[in-house]
Amino acid sequence: AVTAKIIEDARITSVRDASIYAPNVVMTDFSARKLSNPRFRGLGASPNNPAVTTYYDGVPQFNANSSSIELLDVAQIEFVRGPQGALFGRNTVGGLINITSTKPSLKRWTAGATGTYGSYDLWDGRASASAPIVEDKLAAGVGLGWSSRDGYTKNDFTGHNLDSREAFFGKGQLLWQPAERWEV
Fold first, then answer.
1. CA 151 – CA 163 distance, rounded (Å)
2. How many CA atoms lie within 13 A of 119 on its CB side?
3. How high is the mean pLDDT in each 10-residue block of the chain (184 residues)?
4. In a 3-state reduction of DSSP, which class is residue 35?
5. Which backbone phi and psi does 74 adopt, to 5 degrees?
């Protein structure tokens, strides 16, 4: 498992960045992140029939196009190698990537923002906030981000960069806890 502390300390922004902490895990990274396919111990498959499935908060992504999307407010990423069909169903012959989000705070306001600038005109900004709506019962969280960079490869004929990236992404969460041992 790649914990929230490792994610923060290593400035991990995608599943591919986290995969370096898991042995025998390879994320082929093409110019478009949605084309990145995970492989565990050499097992992988086509985008529409993955052998490694990514789960976001318990929801399976049965298309490899969503295996390495941008991350916001992540508590933990698990790379579980080997067949997982008994516990997680189809498309987990090679294993699964299990991503758990940070829950909105039921007690206090929280907020955070990060920004990065790098070579090839890389810009990456992310912000998130969470707050109780009804203390100890209902909370909301929101996260937004934007990332872009110029391509590494230039088409000599047209002069355009071939593998530039640009993405706007976000997520919203509601947490309702009507009783101490029950949350939705």
1. 4
2. 1
3. 92 88 83 71 75 87 73 92 84 88 94 92 94 95 93 84 85 94 92
4. helix
5. -100, 130
